[in-house]
Amino acid sequence: MNERDSEQVAQMFTEGGYTVTKDEFEADAILVNTCSVRDQAEQKALGKMGSMVRHRQKRPHVVYGFMGCMAQSRGNELFDNIPHLDVVVGTQKYHKVFEYVDSILQTRMERRMDDLKLTYKGDHICDIDEEKDSQNTIKDHTVESIEPATFVSIMQGCNMKCSYCIVPDTRGRERGRPIADIVEECKDLVARGVKEVTLLGQIVNLYGRTEFPKVDGKSPFVQLLEAVHAIDGLERIRFTSPHPIGYRDDLVEAFTYLPKLCSHIHFPMQSGSDRILKAMRRPYKNEKFVEIIKKMKAARPDMAITTDIIVGFPGETEEDFMDTLNTVKELEFDNCFVFRYSQRRNTPAADMLEQHSEKTKEDRNQRLLAVVNEIAQRKNNALVGSVQEVLCTGPSKNNPNTLTSRTPQNKIVIMEGNPDRLVGKIMKVRIDECTGFTLYGTPIIESIED
Ligand code: 5AD
Ligand code: SF4
């Protein structure tokens, strides 16, 4: 989601005549989009911003800005600790970043003409207000960011109140974009070569529940899926992340009659203990989560499921942790992201008394990861020798001489081949090898459409 928001900002700078650069040494403005979900992410962003002050020494006009969740939750206080910081822009104001940065930059450039030795102070801008309809502002893509598989933001905010989570505080109430606008954006992407879209929201299956009515018993989210599915030339649809609340049969059924929906969901479980789910203020029982997964696997036998789990939540006993471990073993997730609980400001769990030591969290983290990895590797190994249908998305990050692709189950398959012929193509590959989470394959040439 942050990447998608950053892309919107980048596109506005491009339209304003700027060039996006990955080289911080040549940038006139350096913006850090921040995540607050865990403390580690905030510390990383603060460290990065601190270390970049050196560019100001050589190029005194450089504008520094924080955007996103940490900007939203800390606001003006960020200026106290980071003297070179110029701009702080919250999560509902991404569309204003260009205007703010450009105005500071223009002023500095003009002043620099008069006095090259001037140091610049007092230009701070902090905007973390709410903005009505801000969900409709994340809609543009940069040319570079349009890959065969691209993300589309369909909503902002979350009305849930999970007791550990800072998101409702930083991202505000749920606000959905109109279906017609989302379809328009997807059509435009398809016209520019996109084959797969991932619909993005904090709580994606509840899209539109406060704005748009049900039609024929179908939720606004299923209506959206049907509308996106009808786009000619779009081959694959994914979404992330759904929540067990509001994961109804209309969504399960959609997987039986919408073939472009990929056989994969990332479905955060957080804990397998009912006691902990209650303390987390997730208003359902583990049994319901398991039941939804069983229904999804019945709807699509090749369905892959990945999840998020928090270990070491305050008060989590060894027995609670074992409930999580056993559910993981029972459900055999294709992959799990395991997080050590991190205390977040203004969240109820931060004040709970039975906080765990880092040692306990790390111990549970390692024990859970061992089980998760064993299951994931076993499942991936079983694919060696099989033929999978993949979408080739571009050069591999680790080795740009090879190409990367994904199966409908979202497994990464690395292969060799001519990028001009293969990128953006859906094709069959034979899986030759597996190293943990990565599969290696060979395209079956006859099936490549030219
Ligand atoms: N501590 C650890 N993990 C967290 N997550 C959200 N808040 C916290 C927290 N305070 C995890 C959840 C969520 C994922 C994006 O981050 O598992 O699904
Ligand atoms: Fe956070 Fe819970 Fe909302 Fe997910 S559903 S964003 S974990 S409050």
The first-level CATH class of the largest domain is given as Alpha Beta
Taken as a percent bin, the fraction of beta residues is 15-25%
The largest sheet has its strands arranged as 13-14-15-17-16
Biggest beta sheet attributes: 5 strands, mixed, barrel
Give the distinct bound molecules: 5'-deoxyadenosine, iron/sulfur cluster
Helix content: 25-40%
What is the 3D shape? globular
End-to-end Cα distance, whole Å, is 33 Å
SSE-based structural type: alpha/beta
In the CATH classification, which architecture of the largest domain applies?
Answer: 3-Layer(aba) Sandwich
CATH topology annotation of the largest domain: Rossmann fold
Based on DSSP secondary structure assignment, what is the total number of beta strands?
17
Report a brief summary of the structure:
By secondary structure, the protein is α/β, with parallel strands linked by helices. It has 15 helices and 17 strands.
